[in-house]
Amino acid sequence: MDARLLRTVVAAVALLALGAVVGAATNLGLTLLGAPVALGTPVGVAVAVTVILPLADAYTLLGRGVDTDTLRERGRARLAAEVAFAAVGAMAVSGLLAAGVYTADTAWAFALVVAVGVAVGYGTFVLRNRAYYAAA
Questions:
Q1: I need a labelling partner for 69 at 20 to 30 A (CA). Which of 8, 59, 87, 130 fits?
Q2: Residue 26 contacts residue 91 (beta carbons within 8 Å)
Q3: What is the percent of the chain with per-residue pLDDT over 90, rounded to a whole number?
């Protein structure tokens, strides 16, 4: 197996595991703050996806048009800080939106909260790093 392909597979599995942990931790944190679990779930998903996408761009071959090597070479601390900033943005926006429109029995509201949270969170990451994205 090609070394880059193997690295991509291992990174993808690790990112899925990380996403599960981040989503569960976000949901648990919101629950401890008094938010209903049903409200925390879409926020947790939005934050998890927001964390996974930039890391997938940096560590896998999944992101087309992304200069993964250069993005990764900027340093782990800087990448971690930018991912954390994106996650905070996703959590804030999706949390506010969830508090306003989300009810446990509407799938459209769940999808809206996740989509808007990811768009804001990941979008801010891409905008801050647009030099590494071909079409940005």
A1: 87
A2: yes
A3: 53
